[in-house]
Structures are given as C-alpha cells and as structure tokens.
Amino acid sequence: MPDRHTLAETEQATRERVQHLPLDFAASHALLSLYRAANAVRGHLTNNVLRPHDLTWTGFLVLWTLWIWDSMETRDIAESVGISKGTLTGVAKTLAARDLIERIPSTEDRRLVNLKLSPTGLELMEEIYPEFNKTESRIVGDLDARQLETMTSALRTLVETSERD
C-alpha cells in the first residue's frame, strides 16, 4: 500500500521541520527516495509474487540465499539476509515445517547448524524465481538501459560505502 503522502510532500514536510538544522538535504532526499523505493518494491513483490506461495519477504530471502549459495551456517545466513539469529530461528522452523529447507548439524561443533534447500525448496525456487524476476523487470521497465545501468552502479556504490564504513 502506498504511503498516503507523496514523496515530494514528504520531502517538503521534512525540509520545513528541520530547515533550522545544518543538514545535507540532497543526501536526505536521496536516501528518503531509496527507502520509499525499497519499501514499495518489497511490498509489491510480497503481495504479488510471494504471498500466493505463502512466503514472507524474509522467508524468501532465506530460500534465495540458500538457493544461490547451497548450504550455509545459520549465523552466516542471518548476516547475509540482515536479520538476527533469533529471527532466523523462527523463519527456519517455519520453512523446515513446510519441508523447504533441511537442518544439517555440524560434525565439528554440535552448537552449529547448516541449512540447505530441500528438494521441495529447490522446486519452489525454480518455480517462483522466474515470476519474481518478471515482476522485477516490470518494476524497472520504465527505465531505459542507461538509466538502469546508472541506478545499479549508484546503488552498488551505496552498498559498498555502507559496508566499508
């Protein structure tokens, strides 16, 4: 569901609220746009692609991570997805109950557990990801190739800067 205020209205209200502070409004507006875009895209993909498969955004990210990297230790998955280990525990229980992932105890340290996609999870990802990507393509469809390349490059720079700092 879209925010009830437009992006321009939110930028203007922000400027009015904090105009007395020495702020970098260009940076603020850029990242406000990034947050809004991320939330809008996430909501659209969740509602139109994931929900019909009874998946949450976080559940999908865990499945996608395991699909790309095969088996991973739980703490590494949590870090990669950007969630706490506690949150991952709940998500993993749900995915395991649906037979989408398998838990593999470590042979070196019984406290550690690896997760991997089950055959059912692999099937689901093979089914759902083309639909997910088709929706991704529609979302960026109004950008020409140059705009898409520029946006991707700029976002990579933001990620690299944030991870470096």
Please, what is the average pLDDT?
92
| Helix-strand string | HHHEHHEEHH
CATH class: Mainly Alpha
Overall structural class, as computed from helix and strand content, comes to mainly alpha
CATH superfamily: Winged helix-like DNA-binding domain superfamily/Winged helix DNA-binding domain
- Number of domain modules: 1
What does the overall shape look like? globular
Number of helices: 7
Describe the biggest sheet? 3 strands, antiparallel
> What portion of residues is helical?
55-70%
CATH topology, what is it called? Arc Repressor Mutant, subunit A
Named CATH architecture: Orthogonal Bundle
Describe the protein's architecture and organization:
- Keywords: DNA-binding, Transcription, Transcription regulation.
- Residues 27-160 form the HTH marR-type domain.
- InterPro entries: HTH_MarR-typ, MarR/SlyA-like, Tscrpt_reg_MarR-type_CS, WH-like_DNA-bd_sf, WH_DNA-bd_sf.
- This protein has 165 residues and is mainly alpha-helical.
- The chain has one domain: Orthogonal Bundle (Arc Repressor Mutant, subunit A), CATH 1.10.10.10.
- The chain is 68% helix and 7% strand.
- It is built from seven helices and three strands; from the N terminus they run H-H-H-E-H-H-E-E-H-H.
- It has helices spanning 7-18, 25-50, 57-69, 74-81, 85-97, 119-139, 145-164, and strands at 72-73, 101-105, 113-117.
- Strand 2 (101-105) and strand 3 (113-117) form a beta hairpin.
- Helix 2 (25-50) packs across helix 6 and helix 4 (74-81) packs across helix 5.
- It is globular, with a radius of gyration of 19 Å.
